[in-house]
């Protein structure tokens, strides 16, 4: 199938942009624009109304010395981060006019994704299934800080906490592990075990919850402190390929091999309100334990 990307208004679920030939897209932090990678592996920056702000950079120019495979914005929107097929990571001015930092040949394989801490000081980059690596960088210092590496277990997904102190990794064994982002030491934290390879992982902004997406098609929501499984969604007909929280933490979004994007309520109170709107009777305590993961049903307001 030809690659495509779509951008939606999450308030009305109106389709804003259909972008055929797009292999990756990243939203600016303030929602005013977005960056895309096309099939030629070139980067374009657009405003939210679709106007091209930065024309696609030709491969002969400095912005694309190698084929670009990943793109992201820094939290302040002042810079664009790119990764390429040979594992290099670069940070550019937002208009792609100037290269600020380069970390050449950082990963053994192509770079497939980025995350930054809330302050924009640290960057987590992770490689594809062949490189299977995660690296934490000090952006200003242009130096590698740590490289969490689960021995022999495979690293298939990675996420960085909003305060930049913890790296989460997922592996082929279905497990999620926590690491000190500065030292790459394994933390005495909940060891989350699902089923199937972990293909996507995300931290909520407040650091209280972890979401995972697995190739058995399942999306799971965990308590980051206790490791308790809060909710399990049999989400996709094929594998679940990625997962992400909304900025306010109320929603969880997953993608799958079945070509669908699914949106879930991630707060128990919201789930209770939805359940009440759809049932014709009061839930029993047993149903609340099974479906809402609370011991006693919340009282009516």
Describe the protein:
It is a single chain. The protein is mainly beta. Helices cover 6% and strands 45% of the residues. It contains 2 helices and 25 strands. It has helices at residues 268-278, 285-292; strands at residues 4-9, 14-20, 22-27, 33-38, 43-47, 52-54, 68-73, 79-84, 89-93, 99-103, 111-116, 122-127, 134-138, 143-146, 157-160, 166-170, 175-180, 192-193, 198-203, 209-214, 218-223, 229-234, 240-245, 251-256, 261-265. The strands form 7 sheets. Strands 3-4-5-6 form a 4-stranded antiparallel beta sheet, with no helix packed on it. Strands 7-8-9-10 form a 4-stranded antiparallel beta sheet, with no helix packed on it. Strands 11-12-13-14 form a 4-stranded antiparallel beta sheet, with no helix packed on it. It is globular, with a radius of gyration of 20 Å. The model is unreliable at 59-64 (pLDDT under 50).
- Strand element count: 25
For the record, give the distance between the C-alpha atoms at the N and C termini, rounded to a whole number: 49 Å
Radius of gyration: 20 Å
For the largest beta-sheet, the strand count, sense and barrel status come to: 4 strands, antiparallel
Fraction of residues in H or I helices: under 10%
- What percentage of amino acids are in beta strands? 35-45%
| Largest sheet: spatial strand order | 3-4-5-6
Low-confidence region ranges:
59-64
The total of helices stands at 2
What average pLDDT do the residues reach?
85
Q: Given the helix and strand composition, which structural class is it? A: mainly beta
Succession of helices and strands:
EEEEEEEEEEEEEEEEEEEEEEEEEHH
Shape descriptor: globular
């Amino acid at each position: 199938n030809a690659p495509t990307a779509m951008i939606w208004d999450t308030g009305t679920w109106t389709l804003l942009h259909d972008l055929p030939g797009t292999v990756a897209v990243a939203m600016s932090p303030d929602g005013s624009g977005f960056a895309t990678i096309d099939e030629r592996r070139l980067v374009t920056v657009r405003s939210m109304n679709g106007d091209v702000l930065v024309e696609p950079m030709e491969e002969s120019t400095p912005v694309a010395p190698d084929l670009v495979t990943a793109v992201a914005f820094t939290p302040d929107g002042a810079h664009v981060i790119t990764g390429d097929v040979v594992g290099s990571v670069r940070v550019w001015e937002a208009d792609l006019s100037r290269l600020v930092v380069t970390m050449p040949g950082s990963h053994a394989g192509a770079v497939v994704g980025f995350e930054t801490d809330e302050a924009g000081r640290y960057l987590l980059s992770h490689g594809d299934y062949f490189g299977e690596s995660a690296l934490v960088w000090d952006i200003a210092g242009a130096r590698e800080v740590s490289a969490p590496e689960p021995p022999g277990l495979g690293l298939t997904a990675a996420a960085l906490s909003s305060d930049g102190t913890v790296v989460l990794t997922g592996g082929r064994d279905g497990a999620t592990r926590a690491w000190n982002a500065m030292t790459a030491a394994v933390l005495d934290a909940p060891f989350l075990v699902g089923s199937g390879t972990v293909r996507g992982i995300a931290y909520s902004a407040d650091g209280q919850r972890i979401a995972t997406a697995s190739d058995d098609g399942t999306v799971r929501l965990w308590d980051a402190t206790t490791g308790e499984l809060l909710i399990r969604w049999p989400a996709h007909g094929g594998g679940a390929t990625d997962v992400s929280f909304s900025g306010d933490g109320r929603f969880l979004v997953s993608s799958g091999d079945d070509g669908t994007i699914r949106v879930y309520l991630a707060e128990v109170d919201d789930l209770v309100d939805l359940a009440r709107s759809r049932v014709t009777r009061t839930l029993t305590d047993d149903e609340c334990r099974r479906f809402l993961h609370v011991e006693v049903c919340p009282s009516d307001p």
